[in-house]
Sequence to fold (73 residues):
Amino acid sequence: MNQRHQELADQVLTAFRSDLDETDQQRIGEARLQRLHALICEALSDELEIVSGRVDAVVKELRAEIDKPELEL
Fold:
């Protein structure tokens, strides 16, 4: 997990907490809120891995196109 994921997860958790009143926050508990934070970070990391794989595939495809010899007619 990188710093950006941490910051985004912090923002989501802060927004979620702001929607809860004190009673709901206490009922949910800090441990569950921290688990939510961890799940958000994990989801962001998974998505970044998927996007990275797609970018890698596109780069390989473009390199393959560049390496093809041109046929002159």
